Amino acid sequence: MENKKANIIACSAVITLIILIIVARIVLGLSKAFFLLCGAGVAVIVAVFAWLVIRRHYNRSRKVLESQLISEGRELRIEYSFLRKVAGVPTKFRYKEIEEATDNFQALLGQGASASVFKGILSDGTSVAVKRIDGEEHGEKELRSEVAAIASIQHVNLVRLLGYCCVPSGPRFLVYEFVLNGSLDCWIFPKRATPNRHDRPQRGGCLPWDLRYRVAVDVAKALAYLHHDCRSRILHLDVKPENILLDENYRAIVADFGLSKLMGKDESRVLTTIRGTRGYLAPEWLLEHGISEKSDIYSYGMVLLEMIGGRRNVSFIDDDTNGKSGRKRKFFPKIVNEKMREGKIMEVVDSRIVESGEVDEKEVNRLAYVAFWCIQERTRNRPTMAQVVEMLEGRVVVEEPPDSQMVIVDLLSNDDDDYPTADYRPKLAAFSAYGGDNHITTSSSSHSYAMSMVSGR
């Protein structure tokens, strides 16, 4: 456009000068003034043509240089993108790229209280799951928490964070690798139609026992890596079936680090606000003694029990006692504990896989033993995740766990309040006095983000 404009101006100037010379010849004749004017005009015309030639040569050289720079820049971007992927560093996506990848957020995979997950395909053909976190303040906190936790970690059983996107005064987006078979809850609990899910197909079924056991080992390895092999100890703080994904080979992948917390290697415990999901919260949340990696271990143990029974640890049944109709909570771990002590552990195993006849009773007992070691109410009695891996892989003998009174588990699964009521305080006090680990002092009083959030799923 600029070249065209310059050419037009130059041609107009030359034509104007030629007309001026012709007019001068007619008016002045062959006088001295005419020759002076004619010489000046010719000089200007020559200068204009010289300027056009030089400009054309300069533009040609500039275009060649620009094409070289563009080519080199493209190669550098490709190399940089490759190095980022190799290093596991998340890419910052533009909102337009996210919108195009998800086809304007058409394929909804799951939805939670403040986040939704959509399936998408990047421009290079990579299938991804895009998590949209609504709420400016909450979204910013969760994005920072999640990126800080898993931005640079590499493990086969941990979800890969490919990138993120921040929209000013809008939602935040996290871009993950797409995991084909969805979450574990769809494979261990019987399907039931819900208003949010009946209109979109979901993968699921009944996971056979050998795959359930392998999933238990995979998750244990992932948590052991987070707790022991990272520069900073990473607490997941929301271990549950919904946050365990299954790939095309039904290998477990731990996901959703929105509630995670980093913990220094020299710290034994940290204080933070209650976060996580009822039914999986460790007793130390209520005892306010601070949390540690042992809180993840407790949640993991609760997941193991749900994998054994194919049912939720806390369920509700109709209660018509005393002529009053109502609903009563049923706590599955207590049932498993009783059957385990009686040597009748197979009675609580998921009936769907028992019928197949492919359940190894020794493995069921081992998994139950490990689960009850993990959910010991006193943190000092719980094993580390590294020890759990050794137990599950049969490298060490798993002794029968001590019988637990489960004083606090009912309080943690109570749906009435976020915190225990006055009626429960004496029980809490009694447990603490009995030895609820209050001899351990916290080495950090750092506070973290607000209350629990249910991630999109």
Plain-language structure description:
It is found in: Membrane. This protein has helices spanning 2-28, 32-87, 95-101, 136-150, 185-188, 209-229, 284-287, 293-309, 332-342, 351-354, 361-374, 385-392, 409-412, 425-435; strands spanning 91-92, 108-111, 115-121, 127-133, 161-166, 172-177, 233-235, 244-246, 252-254, 261-263, 314-319, 326-331. It is α+β, with helices and mostly antiparallel strands. The chain folds into 3 domains: 2-73; 91-177, Phosphorylase Kinase, domain 1; 203-435, Transferase(Phosphotransferase) domain 1 (Transferase(Phosphotransferase), domain 1, Orthogonal Bundle), CATH 1.10.510.10. The strands form 4 sheets. It has a 6-stranded mixed beta sheet with strand order 1-5-6-4-3-2, with helices on both faces. A two-stranded antiparallel sheet has the order 7-10. A two-stranded antiparallel sheet has the order 8-9. Helix 6 packs antiparallel against helix 8. The protein is rod-shaped, with a radius of gyration of 34 Å.
Helices, strands, pairings?
Elements: H1 2-28, H2 32-87, E1 91-92, H3 95-101, E2 108-111, E3 115-121, E4 127-133, H4 136-150, E5 161-166, E6 172-177, H5 185-188, H6 209-229, E7 233-235, E8 244-246, E9 252-254, E10 261-263, H7 284-287, H8 293-309, E11 314-319, E12 326-331, H9 332-342, H10 351-354, H11 361-374, H12 385-392, H13 409-412, H14 425-435
Parallel strand pairs: 1-5
Antiparallel strand pairs: 2-3, 3-4, 4-6, 5-6, 7-10, 8-9, 11-12
